[in-house]
Amino acid sequence: MKQPIMVQDSGKDKVLVYVWEAPVRLTHWLIALSVLVLAGTGIYMGNPFLIAPGEASDNFYMGTAKLIHFYGAIVFSLAVVTRLLWMLLGNAYARWNQFVPTSTRRVRGAADMLSYYLFLRRNPPPTVGHNALAGVAYVGVFLLYLMMIITGLAIYSVSAHVDYPMGAFGFLVPLVGGLQSARWLHHFGMWLILLFVVNHVFSTIEVSALERNGVIGSIFSGWKTVEKEQLDLGE
Q1: What CA–CA distance (Å, rounded) separates 90 from 84?
Q2: Of 104, 82, 105, residue with least CA distance to 94
């Protein structure tokens, strides 16, 4: 783990902490970009608003959208799996116990953050990595990601060529309640993820403005600025 760096800011001792490692930052942006690609192509596939006259083979809009959606799904799936593995291999701020509150401190932190969102607390509780409430929310988000991957594979297996390896995922279709249920869950899940994206961007901007700890820049550089007394590398 990279060691904290002392800095001076407005007369207060502050520390630059390397919070988000390269795999965390990379998977974050790959998931974000692939979600936008998947949502855009998915909406088109469900409601093809670009229709050209003539033979479909001369335009191939739907085929192109499906191809982009397929490759976007590969990127998304690999990024999600990598991030899940990094919950076991990463630093203290990437570990699974940042998402599942296993300590009294994390449970108390989640309650304090909830109080802030309910306007019962003036400022959010200080934290270095994910705040405890966000960590719990991310458990739901990653379960949603896995549901999207499973239903996507189930849907794709039905239309896959008989000799194509993707057909092997046909066993998932009955597990998700049939093809129609898979389509519904996939569509509904997309809107839930887009709502999460809106909330995530808003919350990040809000907390960054209040705490002034470089949280937005940290997803590019990996480093956050916190007051020395807030630093707890064992968090």
Answers
A1: 10
A2: 82
SS (H, E, C) 72-115: HHHHHHHHHHHHHHHHHHCCCCCCHHHCCCCCHHHHHHHHHHHH
Amino acid at position 228, single letter: K
What residues contact residue 210 under an 8 Å CB cut-off, 6+ apart? 123, 124
Burial of 94 (0-12, 13-18, 19+ CB in 10 A): buried
In the chain the domains, ranked by start, together with CATH numbers, are: 5-50+59-230 (1.20.950.20)
* Cα 106 from chain centre: 21
pLDDT for 91-145, tens place per residue? Answer: 999 999 999 988 888 899 899 989 988 888 888 787 888 888 999 999 999 999 9
Long-range (24+ apart) CB contacts under 8 A made by 82-86 are 82/23, 82/27, 83/23, 83/24, 83/27, 83/28, 83/31, 83/142, 84/142, 86/21, 86/23, 86/24, 86/27
- CA gyration radius, the chain: 21
d(CA 26, CA 234): 24
